[in-house]
């Protein structure tokens, strides 16, 4: 039996600094049944501040016992929540939006501290999450179902019902936005939701739990269970959990999709990416340089929509030169944050060294970069590698750091082939001033999200987010109306009400 932790009861969770200074923060506990509780393992992991390279707090580790407690609390809460009208369920989301806006500044600094991203990037993280909340607020108007008379006196109607208890597993790179890809739609649909936050950045999710309570959500409707593989597997395997959304690496997405599907669960697992940006000679030089650099080095390249490979078609040297000039102006620590861990830094630098040894030319070298006063941080500066061959690891693998590899081709068809040969299919983009060239590429690129003169072609609400190939396992997308459909099931009712010829009110 768990005991409620006194660590957070009634106590402010406000994060202290309003700057990049190092500060300690509380232990991230599970939020189950309306209280913060330590995991049953009794163990915890340090939560590192990547900018400073040292622990700012701890996160509790959980196992099947904690998942069982969460499921029982959800089972107790679900009848009341599913019976709450959808318009009332959506009201919680209006209040959640207001609370996030109230504390935006403080939350940005907390997210920046746990993730290493800059303040501006943390603001984007939360604001994009708020858009997902706004979409869920509109569900009572969008999700009305439908009905028609399909025959004389026979009516067919469809309405969407919640699945019951559902869950989500999320990555480190967007501590608030990615959980909000799932939570608002799933809750407004009438489900109880159990989140397994990233153990690397557990604080954003911890704060969401508190805000949802403050917004009036009944206990047990939203819960968090922190930890690693054991907590994830307990969620996916629990017989009462009907559906699981996952966002993270392809390796884990593939594993969990297979695991949950074998149990007959509804699974939607978004994986990694290697996003190609095709640049043709007629592209606008300044626009292309600015957009490709922002896409490749924003969030230190730790975005599933970052362009990590540029295919330069034909004579594009002046565009590459302009890009290099823009990349060199990036101020590490101000415009670009730290990467998530020392292990990530070592992995990224390994790819740079490997490409260089295999003949790539290092146009901008981020190795050895550091930030004064934060020398222990996990720093890698913007890196541009030219003359990378499509078969090199730097061209094939998801490096997930601030590294842009340039592959050169003679024709657009060759460039499209390079993109399509890659195992991933999350995002792709083309930079051109020709509508015909753009259309030709868009029709042939095999990625779920394609940009024209946009380096990060994330479909904003009400459109749905999701890739192709090894970037997604499962059917449909995770946000927008597709997301709502994932967390609900259609019930069709066919009815015939007619007064019979041999009946009247008197007999
Ligand atoms: P990750 O796959 O290592 O971890 C994601 C989640 O899975 C975490 O909560 C983690 O605890 C859990 N996990 C890790 N190993 C597990 C295992 N063996 N069994 C069960 N659960 C396990 O990913 P990450 O490093 O946190 O995030 C980076 C990755 O996420 C990148 O590949 C990035 O492209 C991807 N990502 C994809 C999208 C998308 O929409 N496609 C969005 C954001 C991030």
Main attributes?
single chain; 507 residues; alpha/beta; Aldehyde Dehydrogenase, Chain A, domain 1; Aldehyde Dehydrogenase, Chain A, domain 2; seven-stranded mixed beta sheet; six-stranded mixed beta sheet; 16 helices; 37% helix; 22% strand; globular; disordered N terminus; binds nicotinamide-adenine-dinucleotide
Describe this structure in words.
There is one protein chain. The protein is built from 16 helices and 22 strands. It is an alpha/beta fold and 507 residues long. Strand 3 (44-49) and strand 4 form a beta hairpin. Helix 6 packs across helix 16. It starts with 29 loop residues before the first strand and ends in an 11-residue tail after the last strand. The model is unreliable at 1-7 (pLDDT under 50). The protein binds nicotinamide-adenine-dinucleotide (NAD). Nicotinamide-adenine-dinucleotide binds at residues 169-173, 178, 196, 198-199, 228-229, 232, 247-249, 252, 270-273, 304, 398, 400, 426, 467, 471. Nicotinamide-adenine-dinucleotide is lined by residues 169-173, 178, 196, 198-199, 228-229, 232, 247-249, 252, 270-273, 304, 398, 400, 426, 467, 471.
Tell me briefly what this model is.
With about 500 residues, the chain is α/β, with parallel strands linked by helices. About 35% of the residues lie in helices and about 20% in strands.
- The order of strands across the largest sheet is 14-15-16-13-12-18-19
- Kindly estimate the percentage of residues that lie in beta strands according to DSSP: 15-25%
Bound molecules: nicotinamide-adenine-dinucleotide
Shape from CA axes?
A: globular
Give the C-alpha Rg: 24 Å
Report low-confidence residues grouped into runs of 5 or more. Answer: 1-7
The CATH class label of the largest domain is Alpha Beta
* Helix/strand class: alpha/beta
Q: What would you say the CATH architecture of the largest domain is?
A: 3-Layer(aba) Sandwich
The helix fraction, in percent, is 25-40%
Distance between the termini: 62 Å
The CATH homologous superfamily of the largest domain is named Aldehyde Dehydrogenase, Chain A, domain 1
Question: How would you characterize the largest beta sheet?
Answer: 7 strands, mixed
């Amino acid at each position: 039996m768990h005991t409620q932790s006194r660590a957070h009861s009634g106590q402010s969770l406000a994060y202290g600094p309003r700057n990049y200074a190092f500060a300690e923060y509380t232990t991230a506990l599970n939020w189950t049944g309306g209280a913060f509780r330590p995991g049953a393992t009794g163990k915890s992991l340090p939560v590192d501040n990547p900018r400073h390279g040292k622990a700012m707090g701890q996160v509790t580790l959980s196992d099947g016992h904690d998942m069982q407690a969460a499921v029982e609390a959800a089972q107790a809460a679900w009848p009341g929540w599913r019976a709450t009208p959808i318009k009332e369920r959506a009201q919680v989301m209006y209040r959640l939006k207001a609370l996030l806006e109230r504390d935006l500044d403080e939350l940005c600094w907390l997210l920046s501290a746990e993730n290493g991203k800059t303040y501006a990037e943390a603001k984007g993280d939360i604001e994009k999450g708020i858009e997902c909340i706004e979409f869920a607020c509109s569900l009572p108007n969008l999700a009305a179902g439908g009905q028609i008379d399909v025959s004389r006196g026979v009516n067919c109607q469809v309405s969407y019902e919640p699945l019951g208890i559902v869950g989500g597993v999320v990555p480190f790179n967007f501590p608030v936005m990615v959980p909000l890809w799932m939570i608002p739609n799933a809750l407004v649909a009438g489900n109880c939701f159990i989140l397994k936050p990233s153990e690397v950045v557990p604080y954003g999710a911890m704060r969401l739990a508190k805000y949802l309570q403050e917004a009036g959500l009944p206990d047990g409707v939203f819960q968090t269970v922190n930890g690693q593989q054991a907590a994830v597997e307990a969620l996916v395997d629990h017989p009462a959990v009907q559906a699981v959304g996952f966002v993270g690496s392809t390796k884990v997405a593939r594993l969990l999709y297979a695991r949950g599907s074998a149990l007959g669960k509804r699974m939607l697992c978004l994986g990694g990416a290697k996003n190609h940006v095709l640049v043709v000679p007629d592209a606008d030089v300044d626009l292309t340089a600015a957009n490709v650099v922002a896409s490749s080095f924003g969030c230190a390249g730790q975005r599933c929509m970052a362009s990590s490979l540029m295919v330069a078609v034909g004579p594009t040297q002046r565009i590459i030169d302009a890009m290099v000039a823009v990349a060199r102006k990036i101020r590490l620590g101000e415009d670009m944050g730290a990467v998530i861990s020392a292990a990530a830094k070592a992995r990224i630098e390994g790819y740079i060294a490997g490409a260089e040894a295999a003949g790539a030319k290092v146009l901008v070298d981020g190795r050895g970069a550091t930030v004064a006063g934060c020398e222990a941080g996990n720093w890698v500066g913007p890196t541009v590698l030219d003359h990378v061959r499509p078969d090199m690891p730097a061209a094939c693998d998801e490096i997930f750091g601030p590294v842009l590899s340039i592959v050169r081709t003679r024709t657009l068809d060759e460039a499209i082939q390079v993109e399509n040969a890659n195992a991933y299919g999350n995002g792709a983009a083309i930079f051109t001033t020709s509508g015909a060239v753009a259309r030709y590429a868009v029709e042939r690129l095999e990625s779920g999200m394609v940009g024209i003169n946009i380096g990060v072609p994330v479909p904003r609400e009400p459109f749905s987010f999701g890739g192709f190939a090894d970037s997604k396992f499962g059917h449909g997308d995770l946000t927008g109306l597709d997301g709502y459909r994932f967390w609900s099931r259609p019930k069709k009712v066919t009815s015939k009400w007619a007064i019979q010829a041999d009946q009247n009110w008197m007999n």
